Amino acid sequence: MSEQRITISISSVLLVVATGLLLVLLWQLRSLLVTVMIAVVLAASIAPVVNWAETFRIRRWVAAILTYLLLLGGFTGVGLLIGPAAIEQIDRLIRQVPVYAEALRVLAEGLASRLDNTPPELVSQFFNTQALTGWVIRSTQQLLLRSYGITRGIVGGFFTLIFAILLSGYMVADSRTLIKSVVRLFPQPWEDRLEAQVLPVGQRMGGYIRGRVLVSAILGLATAVGLSVLGMPDFAIGLGAIAGVTNLIPFLGPILGSVPALIVAISKGGWLFLWVLILFVIIQNLETYVLDPLLVGTSVGIHPLYQLLAVIGGVQVLGIIGALIVPPWFAGASALIENLYLKPKVMAQRREAQARVKANAVPVTPSA
């Protein structure tokens, strides 16, 4: 019976140990990695504006500073315009959650009594006002804590965002030097190939986030106006702000944004719930068939199912932050795979097919 010996070289052991140490180091630096991911997304978003300003012989670092100052001024103006009213309305919504939960319980008891002989006590167990309110608060807290846990709390999250903005500005201002220093780490011909992919990857990531923000702003405004027309002016701005912010999250965001408005409509009674539901159906179709193709377009370039999985995976790992930054990174990775693997593969298959056709071609000899 022959014996089989398994030899393990010192280099293999060192490689395994180095890989393990690298994974431990990356885990310890996960907060910094998330900050870099946010900075790259922000840099890709403002890069076209900086490139356009550079055509007027404005230095890149000056153009980057001016771009951020304009964005800061715009967001500050919008915040001062609608911020106080939105915060006040959202605060009133949170304080009235028990009232809305009680209205849902009463409605459920009424429906149950009409449909069959279900005792009201059984319905009350499912619509326990205090338990439902506590569950909503706990679920929201867990989602926020998972998002802030990466950045060591609310204060840490604020400073992380500031650092990400500064880092993204530096990335845009000195992008050419940074790109060359990174791609030089790879051997030829990968150095030139990766450098050529920086522009399409950046366009796909930046185009996605710019379109997403613009679509969310339009839908938030449309929601506020629609709810005001339907008879909910007391909460229109707050519910519109919730719908606009949640719409930044693909697929899941529009559903999450419609839930508060529908709950308020149910508590008010009458046909208001139906009209609010129709409003959100119209807004959702407007986003799907008009705004997304027009403003976001094919910036993602991947199947919607994979986009949904990217959103869910981002939420599981990073919370709300992951739902915002993972999809553009996924879009950039898809552009990289498409240009470096899929397209060369198709071209190689076509060349092979053409070569086989030429090889099987029978030459025609002229007759004597």
Main sheet summary: none
Helical fraction equals over 70%
Overall residue-averaged pLDDT value: 79
- Low-confidence regions: none
| Overall morphology | globular
Rg, Å, rounded: 27 Å
Output the number of helix runs: 14
Query: What's the N-to-C terminus distance?
Result: 73 Å
According to DSSP, the number of beta strands is: 0
- The portion of residues forming beta strands comes to under 5%
Q: Structural class, from secondary structure content?
A: mainly alpha
Features:
mainly alpha
Q: What does it look like?
A:
There is one protein chain. The protein has 14 helices and no strands. By secondary structure, it is mostly helical. It is globular. Helices cover 83% and strands 0% of the residues. The mean pLDDT is 79.
Architecture blueprint of SSEs:
Elements: H1 10-28, H2 30-54, H3 60-95, H4 97-115, H5 120-126, H6 129-149, H7 153-173, H8 175-183, H9 190-229, H10 236-246, H11 252-268, H12 272-296, H13 304-318, H14 320-360
Helix pairs in contact: 2-3, 2-7, 2-9, 3-7, 3-10, 4-5, 4-6, 4-11, 9-10, 9-12, 9-14, 10-11, 11-12, 13-14
Structure described in brief:
The chain is mostly helical and 368 residues long. It is 83% helix and 0% strand. It is globular.
